[in-house]
Structures are given as structure tokens and as C-alpha cells.
Amino acid sequence: MASPQGSRPPLEFGGPLGAAALMLLLPATMFHLLLVARSGPARLLGPPPYLPGPEVLWSPQMLLLWLTWLGLQAALYLLPARKVAEGQELKDKSRLRYPINGFQALVLTALLVGLAVCAGLPLGELPEMLLPLAFAATLTAFIFSLLLYLKALVAPASALAPGGNSGNPIYDFFLGRELNPRIWSFDFKYFCELRPGLIGWVLINLALLMQEAELRGTPSLAMWLVNGFQLLYVADALWHEEAVLTTMDITHDGFGFMLAFGDLAWVPFTYSLQAQFLLHHPQALGLPMASVICLMNAVGYYIFRGANSQKNTFRKNPSDPRVAGLETIPTATGRQLLVSGWWGMVRHPNYLGDLIMALAWSLPCGVSHLLPYFYVLYFTALLVHREARDEQQCLRKYGLAWREYCRRVPYRILPYV
After folding, report:
1. How far does Cα 246 stand from its chain's mean position?
2. Where does it primarily localize (predicted)?
3. pTM score, two decimals?
């Protein structure tokens, strides 16, 4: 069932034409959301209230602010880490080393921002800067992706990603040619994956909360819930930073425009959509409904964290007492596939938890507008597509063992579906 030695995997995302379309569609969607979130009608499917001109989007000061933010996070990345972890084995049998200090970066960023606010930093004005900041992030992502593509042209064949080496420059620029682009020990993909975008996301949320407090005297309960839920999600990701080393983004995908734009621009400016919506469209939320939403988020988090922790524990040490009793399926590669516990319920229980949390983040925004539910719709499409990519990759890698796993666990994300 494995692919022939040396063969390239099939093109994804619609090939070069699909990649070119996504490079236009994703930034356009991000700017559309930023514009309609602050408009009166807030229609997800309607036209934006206006099309901003270059004088609105381009700001040298915002570009400098964005580069300063990236520089701050890069400096925190280089600080001594509480732990240094090894990644998965590469083609040349080596293993790269990664600093595990993302949570430390989050805490230090919070302290620095807190001190700056006490010193008079007008953080509540940040929401008015989102358009030019998003433009600066998009411009940075394009230039950064070009530099990564040029760097990959002189990289050895062993350093290239399985899928980003098609020979088509548009497709390879989008997907990324080099698997782990580095300068000395600084790993660009690993740095961008969790730090500038995720920490920037919670900072934007905080700024939106502070501006709501300035406008209305106090933040609404809905705004508090959105901030709290999403801060928990980001803090969890950074506390379990080592787990990202086994994800598809790190082990399989190259680092090109897809991940660079997603990490640096899409995440902070699109994932903060619910808080943006609440600032301009306040929603009344009673304690009974808030309690139900909190319970939903807790259930989603329990499933998400339980499934991911079980998987990561098993990958690091199958003899660990917490996973040693789980049933497995042997594969020709020597690895085992979990077929009980969380991973015996559905093939991707972590995605199920993710989707439940996504719905909990949107419900504080009420049900009068579709716009706040964009994240749920987008994330569902993303995870379904990601699940399909993972299925094909596992079928090529594990062959008959994967077919047996699919027979034993027929449900992909939702139980009984």
C-alpha cells in the first residue's frame, strides 16, 4: 500500500491553480471579516461597508509596530528554555532540537504589556489599528514566504518537504519547499507556529475588552467569556508546546505561504472575530445561558486535552502506565496504532473537542448574526479537510494496518457519523 520509493505525493489544495486562488482568497476573506465586524449590518455574506484605500491600509508606523512585535517574540524564543526537546526522526536519521519556552514567552509578554499599560500605553486604541496591522502582517507573510522559497532552492534534497517539491513554483511557494528552514538553531516554522500569532490573538482580544470597558464602563459578560475561553486555549497550546512536534504541520508540511500567512496574519486577526463583533454589537447574556456555554467549553476542552495528552504520552513512551493497557494495532513501520481509549471512539477525538469549543466561543455573540459563527464554519471545513489529508497520509504510511484501524474505528470525527 505504500507509495513507490521516490515518488511524490499527489498535489493538494487543487494544485497550482488552487494554491494561487487561496493566496488571493485568504487575505481577501480576512480583510472582509475585519471590515464587516465593525459595520452596522455585520453581514457575513454581504459586501463590506467600504473598500479601504492605500492610505487606510498602508502605514509605516504599523509596519514598524508589527516588526517590533515579531522581534520581541523572537527575542523571547532565544531565552533559556525550561526544556529542550527532540523532534521526529528526519530523512537523514537526525533529530532537530527545539526550545520549549512558549508558555514562558506568554507570561513574559503579559508582564511586559502590563507594565507598559501602567506606564500609559493606550492598549485600548489597538482595535482601531487592526486594518493596517493586518496589511503589514500580510505583506510580511508574502515577503517572508518568498525568502523561504529562495532559501529552499539551495537546500539539500534531504531537507525538502514531501509535498512542497512538485517543481511548480506557485504550488511550492504556497505549500513550502523546505520542511524545517533554520538559521543556526532558530527554526522559523516552529517559531511561527505558536508564538507571534497565538500570543497576538489574546493581546488583540484584551485590547478589545479594554476598549469596550472604555466605551461602556465595564466589559460585558459575553466579552469576558470569549476572552477567557480563548486565553485558556492559547495557554494550553503553549504549555503543551512540545506536542506540536508530532503534528502534520511540523512533520509533513513545508514552510511556505500557507503556514506563514496562517500563523502570522490569519490567526490573530481572524480568530479574534468574536471579540471584534462584541465590541461593535454588544450582546446581553444572562448567567443561566453563560453557565451552559461554560459547561460546553469545559466538555470540549476535556475531550481535546484528554485525546491529545493520551496520543502524546503514547508516542513518547508506549510503556507509560497511563497508556500501557490500551489496545493497539502493529504496523509494518514498527509503530503501533491506538485502537482504544479516546482513539477507539473516533479517529480524531481531538478535532471533536476543538469543534465543541469553537461553538462555545461563538454562542456568547447571540444568534442574530451569522458572522461570529464564521470560525465554526471555517474550522469545520479546515478539520474535515485536514482529516482527509491525514487519512491519505496514514494509508500511504501504514497500509493494511490503517485499513484495519478504520474498520475497527469507522467514525472519523463525530461518534456514529
Report:
1. 14
2. membrane
3. 0.93
